[in-house]
Amino acid sequence: MDVKPRIGYVHRGIEKALENRTYIQGAFLVERVCGICSNAHQCTFMMATEEAGGIEVSEKANFIRTIVAELERIHSHLLWLGAAGLEIGFETLFMYVWRDREVVMDLLEAISGNRVNYAMNILGGVRRDISPELADKIRKGLDYLEERTNYYKKLCLEESTVRKRTEGVGVLDPVTGVKLGAVGPTIRASGVKFDVRKNDPHLKYDEADFELITWDTCDTFGRVVVRVLETIESIKIIRWCLDHMPKKGDIMPEKLIRRVPEGEAYARFEAQRGELIYYVKSNGTDKPYRVKIRTPTMANILSVAELLKGCYIADLPIALASIDPCFSCEDRITFIDIEKEKTWTWTREELRRYSREFNEKEKRW
Amino acid sequence: MSKKKKEIKSEEKLIEELKAALGPQLEEAYIKRPRRIHLKVKPGAHRKAVEYMRDNWDLWHVSTITGVDLGENIEVIFHLWRFKEPQTAIMVRTYVPKSNPKLETITDILPSSNFYEREVHDLLGVVFEGHPNLERLILPEDWPEGVYPLRKDWQPTQE
Fold it and tell me: ipTM score here?
């Protein structure tokens, strides 16, 4: 099988829209780039703008930003693990994981008031504080999540359904991956130590105690394991932040910052799916001159086209899902059978159905 | 030596190396903060700069390519990341006149720039000469030819 990617119809003109909006309006618009990594987008936009304009961020705000970023990573990785379970026909895993994910969603709601689009960041700080009582609640939630994630770790490493459907599927060798610019768990599952949190630390990641997770099987199985192990590391980072967070201190500047001095900056952030890039050029007014966004999925498209080559069509859903792609799910896939000179188009649902039937027939689980 | 100075010492070494390799084609080079190197090269010299980094530093990762409309010129910034120690982000910027926005591609040197060049071509109209497949990437098929939404002279008709 050969693959030629087209990225579909989700262009919304957000970069242009940001040029016509103030930084404050923009902060809430960039959250809508992606519903799953909304905080990553907002936080990176703020980091880039703050660096461009030389705006100081308080110590406590950086701790809170780190906590929310890691809670978001837990929710995203668990969401992905459930969805991966669905793709391989392991619906029990899907039900279990999504039940447990509710715990982290509740924590995020307790911090920010929202389950998605947390609206936590503003220029120079964050909008909501974490009180000692809330910190205790988060610790309790983390204990439960840690116990469950350890169970999923055992399950993913030992359960034959997971292994049979993911081992050797969608192989991306590290040399090709690096050349094609793959990022995030996709490249870390090929054994490459590329994690912005370690390579180019932002927020509190230079001080927090955590491991850079890699796996060397280079396949979908590796991507499952990397995400599960990273969830455990995220729990460690949040615990560290809660323990070391200053008790007192402002979380945001006294006066709301509207105008940003002239400058430019380039911020990198390890979002759940990999390196997220914001480039901001400010011109002294309350609106940015130019904002450039590069999402991690964009960086991974070339690699996914590479790793799908030679796959079974029935393995397409899980191999494609293994990079945790972020596009509207209605995108279709056109197949061209060169031998029979036949062309047909499937939606994701039709593809998933075919995959299930094929795997059942061939007894591949 | 102050702490900050010590931190950027390795970056200074990299800039010295680039100055020796590129000579007068390197118009500007400075360190904005630890792990952020900014370079400005003459149009056309970006290929030489990128090729030097790939061959000598084993640099493959293109984070993205940004196009900025500066009025007369369009600025094109290649955001690169150096994996090897000392790890650092390198911004190679160059510019093309808006009246004739042509720049040589770097896809043959760094394949990961493929989609980013297509994106800049789509939204700002910079033609990357020698690109293997400079098709439309982001804009819809029925978008008019020669209209580039990220240029400053284009404004959305209704908000």
Answer: 0.88
Q: Does residue A360 lie within any of the structural domains?
A: no
Q: How many domains does chain A have?
A: 1
Q: CA-to-CA distance for A314 and A335, rounded, in angstroms? A: 12
Q: Please indicate whether, in this complex, the C-beta atoms of A277 and B64 are within 8 angstroms of each other.
A: yes
> What total of structural domains would you count in chain B?
1
Whether A266 and B139 lie within 8 Å, measured CB to CB: no
The reply to whether A268 falls in a domain is yes
The token pair that represents B123 in the structure block: 């939204």
pLDDT in tens, B88-127: 889 999 999 988 888 999 989 988 888 889 889 988 889 9
Q: Using 50, 70 and 90 to split pLDDT, how confident is the model at A5?
A: low
Q: Which amino acid is at B8?
A: I
Q: Return the pLDDT at A15.
A: 84
Q: Whole-model pTM?
A: 0.88
On whether any CB of chain B is under 8 Å from the CB of A331, the answer is no
H helix or E strand, kind and range, residue A178: helix A174-179
CB contact under 8 A, B60 and A181: yes
pLDDT at B4 over 60: no
| A266/B116 CB distance under 8 A | no
CATH number, domain of B61, equals: 3.30.460.80
Question: From the candidates B63, B82, B116, which should be mutated to test the interface with A, based on the most A CB atoms within 10 A?
Answer: B63
Going A324 to A327 to A330 to A336, the CA torsion angle's sign is: negative
Chain B positions in Cβ-Cβ contact with residue A265 (cut-off 8 Å): 32
Residue B141 within any structural domain of the chain = no
In a domain, B119, yes or no: yes
- Range 85-144 of B in CB contact (< 8 A) with A: 87, 89, 91, 110-116, 123, 137-140
Task: Report the candidate in A230, A176, A228 with the shortest Cα–Cα distance to residue A198.
Answer: A230
Chain B residues inside the 8 Å CB shell of A13: 149, 156
Q: Is the pLDDT of residue A50 over 50?
A: yes
SS (H, E, C) A238-298: HHHHHHHCCCCCCCCCCCCCCCCCCEEEEEEEEECCEEEEEEEEECCCCCEEEEEEECHHH
Examine residue B158 and state whether it is found in any structural domain, yes or no.
no
How far apart CA A297 and CA A324 sit, in angstroms, is 8
What's A146's DSSP letter? H
Residue B53 resides in a domain: yes
**Which CATH number belongs to the domain containing residue A263 in this structure?**
1.10.645.10
Range in A19-23, A27-31, A289-293, B2-6 the model is least confident about: B2-6
B61 and A11 within 8 Å at the Cβ level: the answer is no
Cα–Cα distance for residue pair A62/A130, rounded to 1 Å: 12
Judged by a CB distance cut-off of 8 A, whether residue A25 touches chain B is no
Tell whether B53 is within 8 A of chain A (Cβ). Answer: no
